[in-house]
Design goal:
- By secondary structure, the protein is mostly beta strands.
- The protein contains one helix and six strands, in the order ββαββββ.
- The chain has a six-stranded antiparallel beta sheet, with no helix packed on it.
- Strand 3 and strand 4 form a beta hairpin.
C-alpha cells in the first residue's frame, strides 16, 4: 500500500489535506475507489459503501474532493 496526500471535506464543508493509503492503481486512475483508508488526526478511517469516511472518535463524516 502507498501513501498519498489528498483533500477531503467534512459534512460542514471544511476542507482538509490528509494522508490516504491507496493501492498501486491510484496513481493512474485517481479514483476514490482505490483509496483503502484515510488518516485524520491519527485515526485510520475506512470508507463505507457510498465512499464516505466516518470518524468514530470525532463523529465527522469525510468525502474525498
Amino acid at each position: 500500500m502507498l501513501k498519498q496526500s489528498i483533500s477531503v471535506k467534512d459534512q460542514f464543508g471544511v476542507k482538509q489535506a490528509i494522508q490516504a493509503t491507496v493501492d498501486k492503481y491510484f496513481a493512474t486512475t485517481q479514483s476514490s475507489s482505490n483509496v483503502k483508508h484515510i488518516t485524520v488526526d491519527g485515526e485510520d478511517i475506512r470508507p463505507n459503501f457510498e465512499m464516505f469516511f466516518q470518524s468514530t472518535s470525532s463523529g465527522k463524516i469525510f468525502k474525498i474532493v
